TrEMBL record, chain A:
One protein family per Pfam: ABC_tran
Membrane-related topology note: Peripheral membrane protein
InterPro entries: AAA+_ATPase, ABC_carbohydrate_import_ATPase, ABC_transporter-like_ATP-bd, ABC_transporter-like_CS, P-loop_NTPase
Cellular compartments annotated: Cell membrane
Keywords, ordered alphabetically: ATP-binding, Cell membrane, Membrane, Nucleotide-binding, Repeat, Sugar transport, Translocase, Transport
Protein name as annotated: Simple sugar transport system ATP-binding protein
GO MF annotation: an example: ATP hydrolysis activity
Main localization (coarse): membrane
Gene Ontology CC, one term: plasma membrane
Domain ABC transporter, first and last residues per copy: 8-244, 253-504
TrEMBL record, chain B:
Provenance organism: Mesobacillus foraminis
Database matches in PANTHER family: ABC TRANSPORTER PERMEASE PROTEIN YPHD-RELATED-RELATED, INNER MEMBRANE ABC TRANSPORTER PERMEASE PROTEIN YJFF
The keyword Transport appears for this protein: yes
Topology in the lipid bilayer: Multi-pass membrane protein
Keyword field contains rRNA-binding: no
Compartments, record wording: Cell membrane
A molecular function GO annotation: transmembrane transporter activity
Residues that span the membrane, as ranges: 12-33, 40-63, 69-87, 94-117, 123-142, 163-188, 217-239, 251-284, 296-313
Cited InterPro entries: ABC_transp_permease
Coiled coil: none
Pfam entry (one): BPD_transp_2
One GO cellular component, as annotated: plasma membrane
Protein's recorded name: Simple sugar transport system permease protein
Entry keyword set: Cell membrane, Membrane, Sugar transport, Transmembrane, Transmembrane helix, Transport
TrEMBL record, chain D:
CDD domains xref list: TM_PBP1_transp_AraH_like
Top-rank lineage group of the source organism: Bacteria
Keywords: Cell membrane, Membrane, Sugar transport, Transmembrane, Transmembrane helix, Transport
Membrane-crossing residue ranges in chain numbering: 6-23, 44-63, 94-114, 126-145, 165-185, 215-234, 270-292, 298-315
Membrane topology, record value: Multi-pass membrane protein
Record protein name field: Simple sugar transport system permease protein
One MF annotation (Gene Ontology) recorded for this entry: transmembrane transporter activity
Length: 506, 331, 314, 343
């Protein structure tokens, strides 16, 4: 495709936020019929570049050329009209509207001067079915569905626009394999149709599977543009973060579990259930044990986790902590029992947007201490700095508002919030969502070392491979029911788990 | 009612409100002679026609997550303008009506612009609008102006029989038309859906490429227009313009809308609900009057009490059935 | 009660005449309870009706005309024998009064008039004449300052902007003093008929004009009482350094006058309940009664205050 | 951040004061008159005391994304209760005074709990929940005073709102005290953090183990107390209780003060000092209107205009458009971010 001229050219793009230089002299060339990856650590500037392109932010310097015409887009609406269709990083839909409305709003079908809901529902349903083979009730409110489903819907919306350029900012962050495959089929089709696609993801496999070329950013600077099949993984990673990491490849699989010998159980759940959410299940978690939860979309992993944390009230069942009855009716009680829960839904259940990194970090800790024992400011800053270093959060300024952080950095702050309470059981629902390779490795290491110190972890992840690497025991959920529990010994393979998830064995 | 396929849980607050209204009406009928009559029921509409119209406008504002405190004053201003134009300037109603309708529309539009372009908080902008409109009334005239003009008297006194010796006024017809139009706009036009989206999440609406600015401005313009229309109805009702008309009406309106099941945080609610909300306020007033033994202060306390009764019952009913809702939905 | 069936008749006069002796159902729609005066008026009306052995249907409009109209409508729906009401505003009652007339229910206006051409819509208006009160106040001042040469600087505390008493009391007062060039209203501001505001505004007046204020004309006694406190705190002698004129003649005013802190208050008598009941009975008995009946009112000065104070009911 | 929030309100306040100076040469002079410091500035503080108190309470409520419409009625009730308690008393034993204060605080706490429970436990939307008290409260107040204006003949009572301490009006000290308490609670304990987090994202706060219910309850109680004391000052200042008119429309002025002070009605960050400035702006505006002899008919118009000016000055977009280059870069980006981050 070299000979043809780029469809979209961004040159010398510079964007500065108060205190943060997000982009400096960044360039991007996008050809029709290619899938172009934006690569970079958390906070590298990927989303900002996209937001600048689609007119969410205005850039300070630089130029954008589309179809040879120089343009300056001032609003997402304008971008759409120019044929740029975008899925932003966080799910940006309206939870108070139905799925169908979310897909069609802005481009409603009008018949005889009125919106034609029948038609729109019909089309929405088949769009999801045919394109993403997702069979859900499109007349339910968006808020009824899990983040993953919401992400699929966001994608569906973007596909529904007839566009020249399709931008996908971490669309796969909380999808699992099947959905990803679905998405990729679609992308390939669109590619054939000559669309230019920008694709952001922290999963290298996905990058190598789907993209043709990639542009690498590091702290807002343009590092280079490469053909995907011409650049080595390690080279790419080192381009992104400046240091190479073999430790990631030499998967730590099982090493941890070798070291692990049974201690006394920390949490014992007996036929816990919640009507319409999850069928009665038992759950034992040993001290220092890392338990994985695997399952397909909407299989009920999050529900299960929420029940153990008291985020939702269980209808039946009892929970023992350290052998003695515990009443986990509310998060507060769960926390005071040494349980922590890092939600998969960082935007609505995680960050407190208007507060600073520091305040977000110490929140849970402070909640535990009650409002009168205020952690002295000096101490707060120490804690914040410590974890900013530990998780290398960027920008490393405790007083930055969290809503101004990049997605991955927000995730790290939330992780810090819970680590600070040093819990006995840490429930992580998709904790590595949107976190770059380096950080992911760090977090996995952290989990393992903490578990050695006796902290148990309940680990929900869409990446089976990640689960296999870190977990000692793996529970599989299907259709809101706990169907299987593996001891994670040498024999278990991804296949077995896949089978269990899909219903191959029982 | 409007969109057949929606979840019951979404209609629930509305259903609860209607139910409570019926209960209240039965209670009144059992307790007071002359209460259980079609006319008493119709009077609810006759006496509250203007409130229904403002409530409709306010519903859009609140659905979008905003608020409009200027409605009461705009009613007063409209009545004042209408009165002075008719009586002092001796203009014909054919001119007076459109001019007075312009009053609120222009005010609303300007407030909308202030809110959008300088992104100011609706509460404050409309509060300023409230002061301004009242102030302008006094600039026109501190005294009340009686209107004696055939057209206005006609609008005021014409009774449309609805059988059984019962009647309604022209204003009621206007109000009902407005309601129907509003329901259509809310559910079957782009604008309507944009309003809901805006209330759901302004940021998302923006990123989804919806015309946030236009919608916002239009919303406050609509509300302003409704206020002016209500102002005219009020003028028909009072046959006078007066600076102190509709004092504190904004709170009644907001109350009506919220009782009608609309969330002040925006994004959820129904126009029809607001109508029921108005009727509920109206019936509270009626019951108080029929009680006829309450001293001035007990009147206030009773109104508060009945409000409480409604809201708490409503909450309880809704909460009861919400328990089956999905955890993610509840927040 | 007789209300259920009572009204359903063809000619009101015959039925009215029949009823005049026995128990009547009287609907009374009051403006609100915005002032002491109003409360006294309400009490007087309620007691009078009860004492005469009639049934009272009372409704408080909370200062809202729309409420008042609702109240009148429901009185009609309840088919009361007579309606008494004090309009929130003079204007805008045609429609509902017409309905009352059609239902053959006689309407009696209390305290405030309505401004409607067709005076067949109501039987009579019993109440004070606010303009006259303004004149009385001014006349007193004219006599009082007859022998002072030089300017008389007056500050005025108005009632609620736009309210009938405020407008009329201002009008009446100005009407008189305009013939006396030496009398100047140097400041005029609303005090919303309340003590707190009266005090606050007076403070501001004193700040800006201080010593050269000679007279305070306050549209009601409450504001005057508030102002008196302000004057004292400012270090002047109310009643001496600054002459103080109030309207209403509430007890508070008499206390102030007895203490020599206030010079005069123009009575605006709220206690016309019995008078009203007599009118109603008379009308229903078929007697002819005038369209306008004035409440007998006078004016009280410092020197009378002492002995009258105990006799004041409000 | 905090600074930039305060800058424009202060500017406006100064402008208003300067306008006064133009009409009254010795507006800023503070002289000793019969033993007390007197002067317009002190008057403004003194008169503004009740509004200041109410606004301080309101700030915390608004920070939780709520609003308290009941304050006006609470003022009336407090005044009524206070006046009634001391109505019998005369002479100068201090016992009645303190019983009165105790009763007032008790009833304000009650009202606070009432609102708080409705909002936090039953989950009624704040504006309606407090509307109930707004309506019923006045009724109760009048019930207590039996619709009369209750006059107090007991001198110690008048000290609260009329007395002096160290040559200054006593009410100023009350305000100062409440301000200190509020700042302490919110800055020296975790209260402020919790309020802001609950106000910004209740669900996330719940999942972080913060008991938002009690936080809500607490802010409404605090707001109640502030209003109650404010009512005490008002009624003591005129040595009487007026159930119907005391504190009328205070709720709106208080909200106005809070917002002018830079706190957003969407909850979250709050600025007590900003609120204080806001309240002072409103009070000096009122005083100005009175003292420079503006015709009562146009009071409201003036008020409207001033309010708009303050808000516009605080809006980065406006400053950008009007003052052009004036610290352009700064505001331009800020506004852009806000453009999308408000929700
Ligand atoms: N509104 C804002 N205000 C201030 N700084 C911002 C704002 N938005 C982004 N930034 C900063 O710009 C930098 C780039 O952020 P961006 O979201 O583009 O990173 P990213 O590459 O998308 O990271 P991730 O992979 O985690 O999504 C970050 O340091 C972030 O803190
Ligand atoms: N395919 C689906 N069809 C219907 N409802 C679904 C589907 N997927 C999820 N849901 C609903 O969304 C909610 C979220 O499910 P939940 O998040 O527990 O599943 P999960 O295993 O955590 O999936 P995720 O990977 O999205 O976290 C549940 O209430 C479920 O009923
Ligand atoms: Mg990003
Ligand atoms: Mg999940």
């Amino acid at each position: 495709m070299k000979e043809q001229t780029p469809l979209l050219i961004m040159e010398g793009i510079t964007k500065e936020f108060p205190g943060v230089k997000a982009l400096t002299d960044v360039q991007l060339n996008l050809y029709p019929g290619e899938v172009h990856a934006l690569m970079g650590e958390n906070g590298a500037g990927k989303s900002t570049l996209i937001k600048v392109l689609t007119g969410v932010y205005t850039f300070d310097e630089g130029s954008v050329t589309l179809d040879g015409k120089s343009i300056r887009i001032t609003s997402p609406l304008e971008a759409q009209n120019l044929g740029i269709s975008t899925v932003y990083q966080e799910v940006n839909l309206c939870t108070n509207l139905t799925v169908a409305e979310n897909i069609f709003i802005g481009r409603e079908i009008i018949k005889r001067g009125r919106l034609d809901w029948k038609e729109m529902n019909k089309q929405a349903k088949e769009l999801l079915k045919t394109r993403l083979n997702l069979d859900i009730d499109v007349t339910k409110l968006l808020s009824f569905y899990s983040v993953a489903i919401q992400q699929m819907i966001a994608i569906a919306r973007s596909l529904q626009i007839s566009a020249k350029v399709l931008i996908l900012d971490e669309p796969t962050s909380s999808l699992d394999q099947n959905e990803v495959n679905q998405l990729f089929d679609v992308i390939r089709k669109l590619k054939k149709e000559g669309l230019a696609i920008i694709f952001v993801s922290h999963f290298l496999d996905q990058i190598y599977e789907i993209t043709d070329r990639l542009t690498v950013l590091r702290n807002g600077e343009w590092i280079g543009e490469f053909k995907t099949n011409e650049i080595e993984r390690l080279e790419l990673v080192s381009k992104m973060i400046g240091k190479d990491l073999n430790e990631l490849k030499s998967g730590e699989r099982r090493t941890s579990n070798k070291a692990f010998e049974r201690k006394r159980p920390f949490l014992q759940g007996k036929n816990i259930s919640k009507k319409g959410k999850i069928a009665p299940f038992d759950m034992d978690i040993q001290e220092g044990e890392i338990v994985g939860l695997a399952g397909l979309l909407g299989s009920g992993r999050t529900e299960l986790a929420r029940l153990l944390f008291g985020a939702d009230k269980a209808d039946t069942g009892e929970i023992k902590i350290n052998g003695s009855m515990a009443n986990l009716a509310s998060p507060k009680q769960a926390i005071s029992n040494g349980i922590a829960f890092c939600s998969e839904n960082r935007k609505t259940e995680g960050i407190i947007g208007d507060l600073t990194i520091r305040e977000n970090m110490i929140l849970a800790m402070q909640g535990l201490q009650g409002w009168f024992k205020y952690i002295p400011r000096k101490r707060q800053i120490e804690i914040a700095d410590e974890y900013i270093k530990l998780l290398n959060i960027n920008p490393p300024n405790p007083e930055q508002l969290i809503k101004n952080l990049s997605g991955g950095n927000q995730q790290k702050v939330l992780l810090a919030r819970w680590l600070i309470t040093n819990p006995k059981l840490l429930i992580l629902d998709e904790p590595t969502r949107g976190i770059d390779v380096g950080a992911k490795a760090e977090i996995q290491k952290l989990m393992l070392s903490l578990s050695k110190e006796g902290m148990s972890v309940l680990f929900v992840s869409s990446e089976i491979e990640e689960v296999l690497r870190t977990c000692r025991k793996i529970a599989v959920l299907r259709d809101h029911k706990k169907v299987y529990e593996f001891e994670n010994d040498q024999q278990i393979t991804q296949k077995d788990i896949m089978k269990a998830m899909a219903g191959g064995m029982t | 009612m409007t969109k057949g396929f929606q979840l019951d849980s979404k209609h629930l607050p509305l259903a609860a409100t209607i139910g409570l209204f019926i209960v209240m009406f039965l209670f009144g009928s059992l307790r007071y002679t002359g209460f259980f009559s079609t006319q008493v029921f119709l009077n609810l509409f006759i006496d509250n026609a203007f409130l229904i119209v403002v409530a409709v406008g306010m519903t859009f504002v609140i659905l979008s997550g905003g608020i409009d405190l200027s409605v009461g004053s705009i009613i007063a201003l409209t009545s004042m303008v209408a009165a002075s134009l008719t009586m002092n300037a001796q203009l014909s109603p054919a001119l007076v009506i459109p001019l007075s309708l312009l009053v609120g529309t222009v005010l609303g539009f300007s407030m909308g612009c202030l809110i959008h372009y300088f992104n100011l908080q609706p509460f404050i902008v409309t509060l300023a609008g409230m002061f301004l409109a009242r102030g302008l009334c006094y600039l026109i005239n501190v005294e009340s102006i009686t209107i004696n003009n055939e057209f206005f008297s006609f609008m005021a006194s014409t009774r449309i029989p609805v059988g059984g010796g019962n009647f309604i006024s022209i204003s009621v017809i206007i109000a009902l038309l407005v309601v129907v139009a509003a329901i259509f706009v809310a559910h079957f036009t782009k604008f309507g859906r944009n309003v809901y989206a805006l209330g759901g999440s302004e940021q998302s609406a923006l990123l989804m490429g919806l015309p946030v600015g236009k919608t916002k401005i239009l919303i406050y313009t609509v509300s302003g227009f409704c206020s002016s229309l209500a102002g005219l109805i009020f003028t028909f009702y009072m046959l006078s313009g007066y600076g102190l008309h509709a004092n504190g009406l904004e709170l009644d309106t907001i109350a009506a809308v919220v009782i009608g099941g609309t969330l002040l945080t925006g994004g959820a609610g129904y126009v029809a609900g607001s109508v029921v909300g108005v009727l509920i306020l109206g019936i509270i007033q009626t019951v108080i009057v029929f009680e006829g033994t309450l001293s001035s202060w007990w009147t206030k306390i009773a109104i508060g009490g009945l409000l409480l009764l409604f809201i708490v019952l409503q909450r309880v009913i809704v909460a009861r059935s919400k328990t089956t809702q999905t955890s993610i939905a509840s927040h | 009660s007789s209300s259920g069936t009572g009204g359903q008749t063809d000619s009101s006069s015959s039925n009215g005449a029949g009823k005049s002796s026995d128990k009547l159902v009287i609907g009374f729609s009051q403006v609100g309870a915005e002032s002491e005066w109003r409360t006294a008026n309400t009490k007087s009306m309620q007691n009078a009706i009860k004492d005469a052995g009639h049934e009272l249907k009372f409704s408080d409009a909370q200062q809202k005309q729309e409420n008042q109209i609702k109240a009148l409508r429901s009185f009609i729906a309840q088919k009361v024998d007579a309606i008494v009401f004090s309009p929130v505003v003079e204007t805008g009652f045609e429609t509902v009064l017409q309905e009352a007339k059609d239902a053959k229910i006689p309407v009696f206006l209390a305290d405030r008039a309505v401004d409607i051409k067709d005076d067949s819509l109501w039987v009579t208006f019993l109440g004070s004449d606010f303009i006259e009160e303004g004149r009385k106040a001014a006349n007193w001042l004219v006599e009082e300052t007859a022998d002072t040469e030089g300017d008389v600087n007056i500050v005025e505390l108005q009632g609620t902007v736009g309210s009938a008493p405020a407008i009329d009391r201002k009008e009446g007062f100005e009407e008189v003093i305009k013939d006396h060039p030496n009398m100047k209203i140097i400041k005029s501001q609303t005090g919303d008929f309340t003590r707190a505001k009266g005090k606050e505004v007076m403070e501001a007046f004193l700040k800006s004009d201080g010593e050269n204020i000679d007279v305070l004309y306050s549209h009601n006694d409450d504001m005057a009482i508030g102002a008196i406190q302000a004057i004292e705190e400012y270090g002047l002698k109310p009643g001496k350094d600054i002459k103080i004129i109030g309207v209403d003649a509430v007890r508070g005013a008499f206390e102030a006058m007895a203490a020599g802190k206030m010079n005069v208050t123009v009575e605006c008598n709220p206690l016309f309940g019995p008078q009203m009941v007599d009118l109603i009975e008379a009308h229903l008995a078929g007697e002819e009664i005038p369209k306008r009946v004035a409440v007998e009112e006078s004016m009280y000065t410092m020197d009378q205050a002492e002995e009258l104070l105990p006799t004041r009911e409000y | 951040m905090m600074k930039s929030k305060l800058f424009w309100p202060i500017v406006v306040l100064l402008i208003i004061l300067l306008i006064n100076l133009f009409f009254d040469k010795n507006f800023f002079t503070i002289e000793v008159k019969n033993g007390y410091l007197t002067g317009s500035l002190i008057d403004i503080l003194n008169r503004g005391a009740p509004l200041l108190l109410v606004s301080i309470g309101m700030t915390l409520v608004i920070a939780t994304k709520g609003v308290d419409l009941g304050v006006g009625s609470v003022i009336a009730m407090a005044g009524a209760v206070g006046a009634m308690t001391v109505s019998g008393a005369n002479g100068d034993s201090l016992v009645p005074l303190f019983t009165a204060i105790a009763f007032v605080i008790a009833i304000s706490i009650l009202t606070g709990i009432w609102n708080g429970v409705l909002v936090s436990r039953i989950g009624v939307q704040p504006i309606v929940a407090t509307l109930i008290l707004m309506v019923a409260g006045r009724g109760i107040a009048q019930l207590i005073t039996d619709g009369q204006i209750m006059t107090v003949y007991y001198d110690p009572y008048t000290f609260i709102g009329g007395g002096h301490l160290l040559m200054l009006p006593f009410s100023i000290f009350i305000v100062a005290a409440m301000l200190v308490i509020a700042s302490f609670l919110t800055r020296k304990t975790a209260m402020g953090l919790f309020i802001e987090s609950v106000g910004t994202n209740p669900e996330a706060s719940r999942l972080s183990g913060i008991n938002s219910k009690n936080i809500l309850l607490m802010v409404y109680v605090f707001s109640g107390i502030c209003a109650g004391i404010g009512g005490l000052i008002l009624s003591s200042n005129v040595a009487s209780a007026d159930g119907n008119n005391a504190g009328l429309w205070y709720e709106l002025d208080a909200i106005l003060a809070v917002v002018i002070g830079g706190t957003s009605l969407n909850g979250g960050r709050f600025y007590l000092m900003g609120t204080v400035i806001g309240a002072l702006i409103i009070q000096s505006l009122t005083t100005t209107i009175y003292s420079i002899g503006i015709a009562p008919e146009i009071n409201l118009v003036v008020k409207a205009i001033v309010v708009l000016i303050v808000c516009l000055l605080q809006s980065p977009e406006f400053r950008k458009k009007v003052f052009g280059v004036f610290n352009m870069k700064q505001t331009e980006k800020k506004s852009k971010n806000e453009g999308v981050s408000i929700s």
